[in-house]
Amino acid sequence: MTVIDIPGSKSVTARALFLAAAADGITTLVRPLRSDDTEGFSEGLSSLGYEVAQEADRWHIGGRPAGPATTEADIYCRDGATTARFLPTLAAAAAAGTYRFDASAQMRRRPLAPLTEALRTLGVELHHEAAEGHHPLRSVAAGIKGGALTLDAGQSSQYLTALLMLGPLTAEGLRITVTDLVSAPYIEITLAMMRSFGVEVTRSGHDSNVFTVPPGGYRATTYTVEPDASTASYFFAAAALTGHEVTVRGLGTDALQGDLRFVDVLGRMGADVRTTADSTTVRSGGELSGLTVNMRDISDTMPTLAALAPFASGPVRIEDVGNTRVKECDRLEACAENLRRMGITVDTGPDWIEIHPGAPRPTEIATHGDHRIVMSFAVACLRVPGITYDDPGCVRKTFPQFHEAFADFTDLTNR
Ligand SMILES: O=C(O)C1=C[C@@H](OP(=O)(O)O)[C@@H](O)[C@H](O)C1
Ligand SMILES: C=C(OP(=O)(O)O)C(=O)O
């Protein structure tokens, strides 16, 4: 039995940085994630004139309810969609200022339009420098009155998270009617964290799809970041594949992140899953069955399952994951391409992938610069020694020490 600690959640750290910056007072984040995405977010806040003091496992953020200290800034959001979507939204609430945002080549390709259209509806002057609805963009802030909005979050829940977090910074609050929503559990993280910073959002409508966000700002706090559940999926999958037992500390029934539900998928495949209030254990004899599963809510773990799938006794069909085509790469095609290179039969459709059992052979994985492709195929590597990656370092986005940590973990399980 191996007990492991996983680094902090990217999603929780990004939200905490936004909420802390907007709050009245100094917030301390305990055990934030240190990775390219969250360092990029923190750097963006500094460029906007927020005070961010980083100690080893505590970051202190000086909140500015009146908005950024600078009235002009040029911010590079790197490859992180939370940064590229949340930070322009925070800056849009400034009483006055002109801000330019840009991002990596892939992040420039990823969509923003429903969010930028919503900000325009709220009166923010926004110009896209190249393609409409994409980075780079320039915004002129002049305070936001608030009001009613309709939002299609069918491509990314991050649009809704950004607008929910903006609500308390507007003069009159926001009422957001959501017509479609993917990755719904991420909205639960947002609402729970807003509550920790003093804001209660109410939900109404036939599908609880109308969100009313009161004005009045946020209260600073001390906030402990829980471990990253998407990162934990590689360790759970490794245990399920190799017939071991792993316990991840700090992620149990009290956890905020929906991606922890990946263990239910492993449970359906035959693994034994036990959860306490603050830990989750996966144990398996190494035999896994195939299944059909809808991963709309937890699609960051789709590549983890895809890499595990050839070792199951029957086909694995993953449905409703069309939005994984607009992530760090087209993840449906990247998974299919790499599995085929390993000699596995794979079919894909617009929003699904079906993987057949087989005997994978080693190959060089085409990572497309996507951290999750590397970390997922590292799981397959446990049964197929000799797998290499064209860009192993892209794990820096969410887990710079992944290779060392995963090697230590597999050493332990081999003892
Ligand atoms: O809000 C968040 O922190 C995230 C939401 C999800 O994105 P989508 O809503 O675009 O699926 C997820 O894939 C991403 O890694 C993090
Ligand atoms: C999709 C991801 O990240 P983001 O959308 O925050 O860039 C991810 O981490 O898998």
Oligomer: single chain
What class would the helix/strand composition place it in? alpha/beta
Assign the CATH class of the largest domain. Alpha Beta
Q: Provide the domain count.
A: 2
CATH fold call of the largest domain: UDP-n-acetylglucosamine1-carboxyvinyl-transferase, Chain
Ligand kinds: shikimate-3-phosphate, phosphoenolpyruvate
Strand order across the largest sheet? 1-16-18-17
Please compute the radius of gyration using only Cα atoms: 21 Å
Determine the CATH superfamily of the largest domain: Enolpyruvate transferase domain
Largest sheet: 4 strands, mixed
The residue-averaged pLDDT reads 97
Give the CA-based shape. Answer: globular
Our estimate of the beta-strand percent is 15-25%
CA(first)-CA(last) distance: 10 Å
Number of strands: 24
Low-confidence stretches: none
Level-2 CATH architecture of the largest domain: Alpha-beta prism
Number of helices: 13
Percentage of residues assigned to helices: 25-40%
Brief rundown of the structure:
It comes from Streptomyces yanii. By secondary structure, the chain is α/β, with parallel strands linked by helices.
